[in-house]
Design goal:
Blueprint: E1 2-5, H1 8-21, H2 31-39, H3 48-56, E2 65-68, H4 69-74, H5 76-87, H6 93-102, H7 105-110, H8 112-116, H9 120-123, H10 138-151, H11 156-160, H12 163-166
Parallel strand pairs: 1-2
Helix pairs in contact: 5-6
Protein name: Sulfotransferase
Family: Belongs to the sulfotransferase 1 family.
Pfam family, one: Sulfotransfer_1
Length: 169
Protein backbone atom coordinates (compact mmCIF):
# COMPACT_ATOMS: atom_id res chain seq x y z
CA UNK A 1 0.00 0.00 0.00
CA UNK A 2 1.29 3.41 -0.92
CA UNK A 3 0.10 6.01 1.58
CA UNK A 4 0.44 9.57 0.33
CA UNK A 5 -0.03 12.22 3.01
CA UNK A 6 0.22 15.99 2.99
CA UNK A 7 0.67 18.62 5.67
CA UNK A 8 -2.67 19.48 7.30
CA UNK A 9 -2.52 23.20 6.58
CA UNK A 10 -2.20 22.66 2.84
CA UNK A 11 -4.81 19.87 3.02
CA UNK A 12 -7.26 22.35 4.54
CA UNK A 13 -6.42 25.04 1.98
CA UNK A 14 -6.72 22.65 -0.94
CA UNK A 15 -9.96 21.12 0.31
CA UNK A 16 -11.46 24.59 0.82
CA UNK A 17 -10.99 25.35 -2.86
CA UNK A 18 -12.07 21.87 -3.94
CA UNK A 19 -15.26 22.07 -1.88
CA UNK A 20 -16.23 25.39 -3.37
CA UNK A 21 -16.04 24.13 -6.97
CA UNK A 22 -17.37 20.60 -6.50
CA UNK A 23 -21.14 20.98 -6.41
CA UNK A 24 -22.03 17.79 -4.47
CA UNK A 25 -19.89 19.01 -1.56
CA UNK A 26 -20.83 21.74 0.88
CA UNK A 27 -19.45 25.11 -0.17
CA UNK A 28 -18.33 27.83 2.20
CA UNK A 29 -18.90 31.57 2.00
CA UNK A 30 -15.54 32.32 3.61
CA UNK A 31 -12.27 30.68 4.52
CA UNK A 32 -13.15 31.35 8.18
CA UNK A 33 -16.38 29.33 7.85
CA UNK A 34 -14.48 26.48 6.24
CA UNK A 35 -11.75 26.53 8.88
CA UNK A 36 -14.29 26.18 11.70
CA UNK A 37 -15.90 23.20 9.95
CA UNK A 38 -12.50 21.61 9.23
CA UNK A 39 -11.35 21.92 12.83
CA UNK A 40 -14.71 20.71 14.19
CA UNK A 41 -14.64 17.49 12.16
CA UNK A 42 -17.47 18.58 9.85
CA UNK A 43 -15.87 17.46 6.59
CA UNK A 44 -17.67 15.09 4.19
CA UNK A 45 -14.88 12.50 4.46
CA UNK A 46 -14.20 12.98 8.14
CA UNK A 47 -11.42 14.51 10.16
CA UNK A 48 -7.94 14.57 8.62
CA UNK A 49 -6.30 14.18 12.02
CA UNK A 50 -8.38 11.05 12.71
CA UNK A 51 -7.39 9.75 9.28
CA UNK A 52 -3.71 10.22 10.10
CA UNK A 53 -4.17 8.65 13.54
CA UNK A 54 -5.82 5.57 12.04
CA UNK A 55 -3.14 5.11 9.41
CA UNK A 56 -0.41 5.70 11.98
CA UNK A 57 -1.25 2.28 13.48
CA UNK A 58 0.07 0.72 10.27
CA UNK A 59 2.89 3.14 9.47
CA UNK A 60 5.67 0.71 10.43
CA UNK A 61 4.16 -2.20 8.49
CA UNK A 62 6.54 -3.50 5.84
CA UNK A 63 3.70 -3.63 3.31
CA UNK A 64 3.04 0.10 3.61
CA UNK A 65 5.16 2.85 2.14
CA UNK A 66 4.38 6.35 3.34
CA UNK A 67 5.48 9.30 1.29
CA UNK A 68 4.54 12.94 1.60
CA UNK A 69 3.35 15.30 -1.10
CA UNK A 70 6.13 17.63 0.01
CA UNK A 71 8.79 14.93 -0.52
CA UNK A 72 7.55 14.37 -4.03
CA UNK A 73 7.67 18.10 -4.74
CA UNK A 74 11.20 18.42 -3.29
CA UNK A 75 12.72 15.54 -5.23
CA UNK A 76 10.35 13.90 -7.72
CA UNK A 77 12.99 11.55 -9.16
CA UNK A 78 13.92 10.15 -5.75
CA UNK A 79 10.25 9.76 -4.87
CA UNK A 80 9.49 7.83 -8.06
CA UNK A 81 12.62 5.71 -7.61
CA UNK A 82 11.61 4.82 -4.03
CA UNK A 83 8.03 4.02 -5.02
CA UNK A 84 9.20 1.81 -7.90
CA UNK A 85 11.64 0.01 -5.60
CA UNK A 86 8.92 -0.52 -2.98
CA UNK A 87 6.68 -2.19 -5.57
CA UNK A 88 9.58 -4.09 -7.15
CA UNK A 89 9.30 -2.31 -10.49
CA UNK A 90 12.64 -1.92 -12.24
CA UNK A 91 13.00 1.36 -14.12
CA UNK A 92 15.62 2.46 -16.60
CA UNK A 93 16.82 6.05 -16.28
CA UNK A 94 14.67 6.98 -19.29
CA UNK A 95 11.57 5.32 -17.80
CA UNK A 96 12.25 7.06 -14.49
CA UNK A 97 12.50 10.44 -16.21
CA UNK A 98 9.33 9.74 -18.24
CA UNK A 99 7.40 8.97 -15.05
CA UNK A 100 8.77 12.09 -13.34
CA UNK A 101 7.84 14.25 -16.34
CA UNK A 102 4.36 12.80 -16.80
CA UNK A 103 3.51 12.86 -13.10
CA UNK A 104 4.57 16.46 -12.53
CA UNK A 105 1.75 18.71 -11.43
CA UNK A 106 2.18 20.87 -14.52
CA UNK A 107 1.88 17.87 -16.84
CA UNK A 108 -1.11 16.43 -15.01
CA UNK A 109 -2.87 19.80 -15.04
CA UNK A 110 -2.14 20.26 -18.74
CA UNK A 111 -3.60 16.82 -19.53
CA UNK A 112 -6.40 16.93 -16.96
CA UNK A 113 -9.21 17.23 -19.51
CA UNK A 114 -8.00 14.03 -21.21
CA UNK A 115 -7.43 12.12 -17.98
CA UNK A 116 -10.31 13.41 -15.84
CA UNK A 117 -12.79 14.86 -18.32
CA UNK A 118 -14.93 17.73 -17.08
CA UNK A 119 -13.48 17.37 -13.57
CA UNK A 120 -9.93 18.04 -14.74
CA UNK A 121 -10.01 21.71 -13.81
CA UNK A 122 -11.45 20.85 -10.39
CA UNK A 123 -8.74 18.38 -9.38
CA UNK A 124 -5.71 20.45 -10.37
CA UNK A 125 -5.54 23.96 -8.96
CA UNK A 126 -2.03 25.03 -7.91
CA UNK A 127 -0.07 22.04 -6.70
CA UNK A 128 1.97 24.30 -4.44
CA UNK A 129 3.44 23.72 -1.01
CA UNK A 130 2.71 26.33 1.70
CA UNK A 131 -0.27 27.99 0.01
CA UNK A 132 -1.81 27.87 3.48
CA UNK A 133 0.17 31.01 4.33
CA UNK A 134 -2.20 32.94 2.07
CA UNK A 135 -5.25 31.91 4.13
CA UNK A 136 -4.48 31.19 7.78
CA UNK A 137 -4.63 34.06 10.23
CA UNK A 138 -2.56 34.00 13.43
CA UNK A 139 -5.34 32.51 15.56
CA UNK A 140 -6.09 29.76 13.01
CA UNK A 141 -2.41 29.01 12.74
CA UNK A 142 -2.13 28.54 16.52
CA UNK A 143 -5.25 26.35 16.64
CA UNK A 144 -3.96 24.09 13.87
CA UNK A 145 -0.53 23.86 15.50
CA UNK A 146 -2.11 22.88 18.81
CA UNK A 147 -4.40 20.29 17.24
CA UNK A 148 -1.52 18.83 15.25
CA UNK A 149 0.63 18.47 18.37
CA UNK A 150 -2.20 16.90 20.38
CA UNK A 151 -3.36 14.50 17.69
CA UNK A 152 -0.35 13.41 15.62
CA UNK A 153 2.72 15.42 16.63
CA UNK A 154 4.74 12.61 18.18
CA UNK A 155 3.57 9.82 15.87
CA UNK A 156 5.44 8.17 13.01
CA UNK A 157 3.26 9.93 10.43
CA UNK A 158 3.44 13.19 12.35
CA UNK A 159 7.22 13.14 12.14
CA UNK A 160 7.08 12.14 8.48
CA UNK A 161 5.10 15.31 7.72
CA UNK A 162 7.97 17.58 8.83
CA UNK A 163 5.48 19.97 10.34
CA UNK A 164 8.17 22.34 11.61
CA UNK A 165 9.47 22.74 8.07
CA UNK A 166 6.20 23.12 6.18
CA UNK A 167 3.71 24.45 8.70
CA UNK A 168 5.42 27.03 10.82
CA UNK A 169 4.80 30.66 9.88
Amino acid sequence: ILLLIRNPKDIATSFYHFSNVMSPLPSYDTWDDFFVAFMNKKMPWGCYFEYLSKWNKYAADENIMTITYEELKENPALGVKNIAAFFGIPLTEKELQDVVDRSSFQSMKKNSQKTHGAFGNVFFRKGAVSDWKNFFNEDQNKKMDKTYEERVGGTILGKKLKYDVYCKA
